[in-house]
């Protein structure tokens, strides 16, 4: 495009102003990118769910436990292929600086079935074997391993305020035998999984043979709702009534409990864009107004009105795209660094759709901010424009 | 040569009226003027006499309120904006009092500007611009930005930009108005030599030294031709 | 001399401010930009502020809570009947007519549909002993009466009733196989208890297969100074594995994570937006200076010193920013203050209802931020104006 260098030179005219405008657009899109990552992190649990998976929990609330034996009854229900239980262990460890105790999302599970139901957790076969053959064995997600500097072969302790051993100790011993990674970008890798048989044997108290909830794999995701209903009915009027629902619905419900995060983020973003639109739109108008004489000369030389309009639009779009794309790129780089709070927001990545959306917004910003000055330039009468200068 | 082809510019009964609020200002009232091919015409007159307006009408930068402006065989009043822009690109070169160069472009890039509207490729554009700058004696200033050039040099870049497309008609609005005597003389000599090479030049000026170099001088006063100078 | 200097300053500054209407487009843009930043800052921080206020306002310093050692919250705690008795008898606990002012409590969560979305959310259901009211000291019945001991009756906090459907007096809720009747509505004056539902601990235990266990003991201290004695008594008792904390301390640790998160989020967004707006303000002020080049040069040629020129540019920038800041803060106050909502507290997995709080301190901070943006936005352009070479600036067109 032979006019590109012309656009580029006009941007260099007032370097300071162009840089300031670029920076404000850059900041807006960096913010956009980070808010998208954050939104995905907070609400994206839904997209990480498996449509062929149900969660079965106590009807009153998920803090109440269910008999482990329910697994067998659930498995007999038509449409169910696999059932695995898990329990909230609330294991705690010291932070790296030893300053305080933090909760590691930790669960006693039945390794074989559990890994079948959650195939997005990827564990090398040799480590799986080690887990099967080590009663105190535990596998941890990559995020957690990195955070607590756990390596395979480490012998570690977690304390749980909820679960005491039969001997009355709060401290539990584990051997790290594996580190799992995610099959997808949004897989939560902050967890700590250990063997239920070890847990069951060691634990004391009233809740022996009780588990937290069940993960259920169904044959046909289309039937998920119907199967949920069947499971609910199976245990109606029993001492432990259950609530079964597709994983996605459960996560959705859980997220909704925080309030409408998406709409808060959307509100903030629209404020940001409105402000930036105003600022860069104004700068653009100013830049064009100052150049009326020059645009007049271009027209005198024979540049048609349409071309002058395109030049102005081209300039505003170049500014918007340059600022916008670098902002998005920066946000993307930021997302590669991983979550600054992995315990709290384990999933941390930028969705490609959000990147495209950002690009679209940048172009739109360029068109909108350039529209008014471009039309002014289009309508500019040469004789008047030249007179302004003299 | 027929009479028609020897006249490059024909202005017939042209009026131009501006509105300032409710007030009407008649800048040109029923003006007739012809300019022959190869002429170097000086347009003189006091401020507000309408000479710049007339130049704008001839260059297709503005439209007459009534009457017709005919350049070669084109009736400018019958062209739409787009055609007019294309016509300007092909047939006219402008030289301004304050040069009106793009401050962000080098001399060469400034001269190349009108060529962006042609089908010439990058290399051809560069060559044409070099030839034009050579013609105005600035082949050693190709990569200089306007602010690093003297006034006279800037104006010569302006002239190079005006002639780079090889237009039939050169329109100059006070080309020496912002220059010292010596630089002004150089610019005028340059215009004269362009005339000798076949260009038709119309120059607005109120400097008698400048008009002395022209082949004909017309005086404008209150929107009408008053005296015609010697041939 | 000084007054002369001042009047110079004033004349030039005023001169400058009066020229704002001529540049209203870009001036307005700068102001609106700042207003946007301030509104977002105030809005987001009012969430954190409101949440924090709710979580801490109810915590009287002469009330202490005892949990099993190592438990960060009531959900993960557990105490037997014997332990709760030992705790009640620890020195430092105030005594009422019927013995020590201590209430052993159970904390469970139940699912109820939220009014706004119709979807289920976790509501805390607390089983308390009769002494709980006297221990807390700030519970007031708004409607109806207290529950009777031994009956399936509940009283609901004002916030819980507002956020969840079906909690009016006379209505019944079914939890598991038990049906509970709402007999009263209470408030703790906007504190965390307002989000809870209370019932008799003795009724809740069997309903939840808990046996004779509790999760926490709340005690009223003889005086706030007695907390040291009480805490020592708990930790030194070889028969107890428990820790004591004052209620304000406990509540603030419970709300720490969420309010910190919202604050960090809000400050981060505001800083980023602030930067964006600062660049905009700089642009506006630079071009304001550029458009006044000749005027400033004329003043300087007439003999005005540089200071009034600097001050006049700064004044314009700060006035514009403050105007924007005040508008933004007012808009945020109008839009957000008192806005009722509820969210899930990560640390208890249960709903807390609270109001956005745009506090005077927050307003002051927001407006101060606007002023700082204005100061920085004006400083560099002002210096440029002062350094302008007079002779060439006079010729500026």
Q: What topology emerges from the helices and strands here?
A:
The complex is a heterotrimer of chains A (390), B (231) and C (397).
Chain A: H1 4-13, H2 15-43, E1 53-58, E2 66-67, H3 70-75, E3 80-86, E4 91-94, E5 101-104, E6 106-109, H4 111-117, E7 121-122, H5 125-133, E8 137-141, H6 142-148, E9 155-159, E10 171-182, E11 192-195, H7 196-202, E12 210-211, E13 213-218, H8 224-234, E14 242-246, H9 247-256, H10 261-290, H11 292-301, H12 305-336, H13 352-379, H14 382-389
Parallel strand pairs in A: 6-11, 8-10
Antiparallel strand pairs in A: 1-13, 1-14, 2-12, 3-13, 4-5, 7-10, 8-11, 9-10
Chain B: H1 3-6, E1 7-20, E2 23-36, E3 40-44, H2 51-58, E4 66-71, E5 74-75, H3 81-91, E6 92-95, H4 107-112, H5 122-135, H6 151-163, E7 169-173, H7 181-196, E8 200-204, H8 208-212, E9 216-221, E10 224-228
Helix pairs in contact in B: 5-6, 6-7
Chain C: H1 2-18, H2 24-57, E1 63-68, E2 79-80, H3 81-88, E3 95-96, E4 99-100, E5 102-113, E6 120-128, H4 132-136, E7 140-144, E8 153-157, H5 158-163, E9 172-175, E10 178-187, E11 197-200, H6 201-207, E12 213-214, E13 216-220, H7 227-236, E14 242-246, H8 247-291, H9 293-301, H10 306-336, E15 340-345, E16 350-355, H11 360-387, H12 390-394
Parallel strand pairs in C: 6-11, 8-10
Antiparallel strand pairs in C: 1-13, 1-14, 2-12, 3-4, 5-6, 5-13, 7-10, 8-11, 9-10, 15-16
Helix pairs in contact in C: 1-10, 2-8, 2-10, 2-11, 8-11, 10-11
Explained architecture:
The complex is a heterotrimer of chains A (390), B (231) and C (397). Chain A has 390 residues and is an alpha+beta fold. Chain A has two domains: 4-45 and 259-389, no CATH class; 51-256, no CATH class. Helices cover 52% and strands 17% of the residues of chain A. Chain A contains 14 helices and 14 strands. In chain A, strands 6, 7, 8, 9, 10 and 11 form a six-stranded mixed sheet that branches. In chain A, helix 12 runs antiparallel to helix 13 (352-379). The longest helix of chain A has 32 residues, at 305-336. Chain B has one domain: Rossmann fold (3-Layer(aba) Sandwich). Chain B contains eight helices and ten strands. In chain B, the strands form two sheets. In chain B, strands 6-7-8-3-9-10 form a six-stranded mixed sheet, sandwiched between helices. A four-stranded antiparallel sheet of chain B has the order 2-1-4-5. Chain C is an alpha+beta fold. Chain C has two domains: 2-56 and 255-394, no CATH class; 70-240, no CATH class. Chain C is 52% helix and 21% strand. Chain C has helices at residues 2-18, 24-57, 81-88, 132-136, 158-163, 201-207, 227-236, 247-291, 293-301, 306-336, 360-387, 390-394, and strands at residues 63-68, 79-80, 95-96, 99-100, 102-113, 120-128, 140-144, 153-157, 172-175, 178-187, 197-200, 213-214, 216-220, 242-246, 340-345, 350-355. In chain C, strand 15 (340-345) and strand 16 form a beta hairpin. The longest helix of chain C is centred in the last third of the chain and has 45 residues, at 247-291. Chain C starts with a helix and ends with a helix. The model of chain C has no long low-confidence stretch (mean pLDDT 85). Chains in contact: A-B, A-C. The interface between A and B is medium-sized, with 27 and 30 residues.
